[in-house]
User: What shape does this take?
Amino acid sequence: MSLPSSRSGVVDGPSADVNDLLVDIGLVDHHVHSVVVGPVEPGDFVALVCESDRRSAAQAAGLDTQVGIAIRRWCAPLLGLPAGIAGDDYLDYRRGLTNEAAAARLLPSAGFDALLVDTGYQANRLVATAEFGRLAGAPAHTIVRLEALAEQVAGSSPTALGFAAAFESALAAAARGAVGLKSIIAYRDGLDFDPTPPGLDEVAAHAGRWLAEIEASGTIRLTDPVLLRHVLWTGARTGLPVQVHAGFGDTDLDLHRADPLLMTGFLRATEGVCPVLLLHNYPFHRQAGYLAQMFPHVYLDVGLAVNYTGVQSRQVIAESLELAPFTKVLFSSDAWGAPELHLLGSWLFRRGMARVIGEWVTAGDWTIEDARRSIELIAGGNARRVYGLAAAPFRDPAASS
Assistant: This one.
């Protein structure tokens, strides 16, 4: 088979047969965000490709990072620039290109079959979900962020006693158009939360305090531990897949409280209730692999870390495949804002998988059929099963050669 030119130089593992599998396969990105609208100034761009919410930290790093080098190596040629272009020259070029135009040139080469889009963070800055899917050439599905929905409900001036019912009603309505839910309780409280669901009297008391704080301050932000547990359990009881961020994230998070092992009690309590998908996990991806092996309803990915570790993402991918059953590992990019991150989420995943699994096949430890099945599961099969998505579309290799 003739390999698609946009990815043939990316997928360079030692097994040609494994390379063929990873170049051609479509990916289901089970957790992703849209891209920002309009032109992007250099200072804004480096902020988009840095997880710190401190602009000064992003400016100090610039593009002299693993992700910055990967952008200049892999994204630049798709924009008509030399591979490895200097960071300042790349930023200067991007200033003159709208983000939507960059997305139209980068996203189709990522090879997505479906996008599961978290719409709960700064949606007013982003391209609408349907248009984002059109730019990527893939159907886009909605993931509802629980805390953002609870904040919307609180902004509608419910009573303290009526908050629980109002949230449940809003969630039922939102869930009708969604394939899954997401919680950022790791950011707002930590994963060492009480795993038991709070009672309605307790919820009403804490809702009253929160609503009073909103009225006094004019700021709506859910940080109350009892209410965070309540919205998480309300989401779990829908039976929809619930994504829970764990590990690496911005400075709103205390990383030592984002280890997924801390929520083992919640995982025990939700067995038979809903699938739980541990998002991203780095540097706790080995812990997440253990949890995925222990509990039938627990899954993981190493999205986000793949982008930000660049050439070292091969190691992260290999470590994520140590304990976790291959029926429990999913692909995600967790890309937000800059389409370069969406492309790298795909390309570095393909490259890392080809190098890791290709070594196992060429060493004789795996057969090519072992590789084929595992790649198909991780690239999209697991996500399609967990989220109830349609089967993968037929891809004619000749059409992409």
Summary: Residues 47 and 56 are 9 Å apart (CA to CA). The radius of gyration is 21 Å. Residues 339-362 form the longest helix (24 residues). DSSP finds 19 helices and seven strands in the chain.
